[in-house]
Amino acid sequence: MIHVNSPLKALSQGHWFKLICGASFGHLPAVRNLALAYTLAGADCIDVAADPAVIAAAKQGIEAALEVAASRGDRLGIGGNLRRPLLMASLNDGEDPHFRKAEFNPAICPSDCPRPCERICPARAIRFETSRSGVIDELCYGCGRCLPVCPIGQIVTRSYVVAPGAIAQLILDSGIDAIEIHTQVGRLEDFKRLWEAIAPKVNRLQVLAISCPDAEGSIDYLRSLYAAIAPLPCPLIWQTDGRPMSGDIGAGTTHAAVKFARKVLAADLPGHVQLAGGTNHHTVAKLQQQGLLRTASGADKQAIAGIAYGSYARALLAPVLDQLEIADGTETPEVMPLEQQPDLLREAVNLADSLVSPLKIPIELQHTTNDYTPAIDATMTRKPSAPLES
Prior knowledge:
Number of strands: 16
Radius of gyration: 20 Å
Structural class: alpha/beta
Helix content: 25-40%
């Protein structure tokens, strides 16, 4: 594994790796353990919900990773010279699939229902148990896969929008390093209202990201957004949101994000371009095939700055993190901190590294400076599990 001197250098050099915990994902033990594992694997940014409790859980995971690297790094094969990733909070200017929860009344489900919703949920957020039935709110991240499979069509979603008035306090009190604004074509005035709350405190941020899906008029819309926020005191990231929350479904989900990234790169907008939405272990290879990964010279203008991984990154570690649950018969089982289980910690970091390293290695092999420090033995790396593909 390779660690760079700073996340911002990774961004400028084209090997920025962001973990998306989920704008609606609120399971605090999972957020903490995901942040810990991916920090140890070399992530440059951890993106979480704009919720103080979720932000605190991610910070705890990052701090735990730094402590593990400092105190047990040699025994685990992890270098002590670990870099702290940026902590990002996601906001929205209107209705957005990333900011919703599924809900339904399990009492009216037919007794003979085969429960396809329970089987299809990637987060195991739908359960039919004596102690707790229906959607487990903190586990649901709003992917929407349960909606079309319900035989009686009773599953709906509940959307929410972060109140602009709370933004300044969020920045001041939570200690986040970056903000990402989710928007869509046609919502310029909504975006401006949200930006009015952020702008007075933007000098406290190290990065501003704007996430937008592709649509007719998307490039003109992005230009209008830039006109509304310029000038900026920090780097800007355009997140090309391809096929949201789908990376764990199969290889083909990455195509939409790559296609939109090419479109944004061709528009030559100020800022960096980072993929998201459907990204998985095929994304780096796809970018390499199309010549969209930056080389060491940094002269590749038509190259992406990085990749964000969400549902695939979480699904990759789920078999390990699930073993941390203590079955105690309660509605919310206790979850052990990952660092307290050395074997599971090593396995989780190996898996996280299998996703991080392909983005880092093409650049690392071309550098001989002290910008890079080995953090984990290469023999520990292994490929993502095949069952994650459809």
